[in-house]
Amino acid sequence: MTEQRFQPVDSSVTPRYSEIATFMRAARVELNAAVDIALAGVPLDLGATFRTGARQGPAGVREASRLIRQVNPTTGVAPYRLANIADIGDAPTHPLSVEKSVDLIQAFYEKVHAAGAVPISVGGDHTVPLPVLRAIAKDGPVGLVQIDSHSDTFDEFMGTKYNHATFVRRAVEEGLLDPKRVIQIGLRGTRYGDDDIVYGSRVGIRMVTMDEYEELGRAKVIEEIRKVIGTRPTYFSIDIDGLDPKEAPGTGVPEPGGIMMRDLQMILRALNGADLIGGDICEVVPSLDPTGITCINAANLMFELTCLAAVAHVARNKA
Hints:
Strand order of the largest sheet: 1-3-2-4-9-8-5-6-7
Radius of gyration: 18 Å
Number of helices: 10
CATH architecture: 3-Layer(aba) Sandwich
Shape: globular
CATH class: Alpha Beta
Distance between the termini: 13 Å
Order of helices and strands: EEHHEHEHEHEHEHHEHEH
């Protein structure tokens, strides 16, 4: 069992509106070898091709995550009892260059990986997973569970290789992802042309459109996820636009007819025991949602990923 060094602010003792906001009220700690799960923000939106503002995502989710308590109501997982969890701040980014930002983010996560911590991040646009994977998947390709309305498998977009529509393709090409262990759930956006998803089909990515999701039902989709990722190391990436816009209006490219928050919560809880090596929630744009529900849902999804990471941490220590 991990020796407990960091504990979150107890909201039953200290009111939620008090103190400086951190992710899920976790202790704010500089990265060190005692951190098992590193919560981090990545304030980058230079890879977004329509509505920007995801650079404010980490700050918005930190505020909203004041609502999060400490025990998962379905699985019973209490992550702070299982692992040392800390908010380690934000990855550095360059305000004028997506390429320089990618390099800075990679270097930041290389330090996280070297410290032995599992990163759970809030972006930022969906360029973010690429530098994270470059840092933590150097030893061989890993699996991916991707919740998204778009496949992010373009070779180029607007003449650029690094943006929120290309991260999966780059990661497969660079040997960071095993395409046969990649499953994308919630795909539904209108397409630019007939070949938008050809690459994914060609390399063996399992693509579950919303049409197929409805045909299969949640339980069958969970079975499909388990079949694809197996028991080996897997990264989880949630584009908040995978949720229906009623659940997450604050995002750059909303697509009607998406996954309900309840379904996504239960999908993640059903994957308890997966060998999660990192995860992120991206494309949260607080300024586009005056209700705040997008940040609230993102914060709750961060908690679900943290629960998975804590269980995986315990399993690795026992191995």
